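Q: What structure does this chain adopt?
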Amino acid sequence: MKRRTLLQWPALAAAGQAIAQSAPLTRPIPATGKPIPRVGLGTWITFNVGQDPPARAHCAQVIQAFLDEGGRLIDSSPMYGSSQGVVGDALRSLAARHRVFAADKVWTSGDGAAQVETSRSLWQVPRFDLLQVHNLLAWEKQLPLLQRMKERGSVRYVGITTSEGRRHREFERIMREHKLDFVQLTYNLFDREAEERLLPLAAERGIAVLVNRPFQEGDLLRRLQRHPLPAWAAEIGCGSWAQFALKFVIGHPAVTCAIPATRRVEHVRENMATARAPLPDDAMRQRMAAHVARL
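A:
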């Protein structure tokens, strides 16, 4: 996907260069206080490249750029085809296992422990930092499994996920009734239902929030790029609609980390630049949402 930027504007270009030279902003994981950069890397679709050597090598370049820019959290799933093995081979070739916060998922109604072990071997890591029940599949069975693994020290954090605004009522109930370290949900400029109950509840319960689909798999950007980026976006260091959309997400006080997926080195660098000051405050976020709503 082609991203239209406004970096030809001298003031924006200078602002972008200054932002790129600073370290990415972090947010503490409530369960432990450990900091994590506010932008991570998703692998849905983009890293499902099969056994094609050039494509796998390119994915390794994306991960290298992500790490070079200060990124840490990489998220995958057994649902994502070859993505787990592609990530694992990249981490091995880059000697970067120790630099990554490895987040994966359980996605089965069967033997969750066996699936986790398969996933771990594909990632080639000694253990996962975070394991999540993917889209609540058999969560009554798999969440207790993950909690037992945490008690044994086999995983550091546990959580649940949903996407595209599905099953929010059940998601909220689980958040209220079970001890979770993380939740993962969809939130972006056009999908804002999570603002009503889930994000406030996460803040109340001390649960870290990962945000998937911040660009609606590119649909959001394709819609926005029909219009010029407002000049006032420079006030928060935005040089593109992608940065505008991502800063809106990570500026929410309950959001710990957004995990946009990309297969392009320049896009991962652009995304990571978003995780640098300044971020929008509540008034600016309201202005951003109102502007987009009028387009």
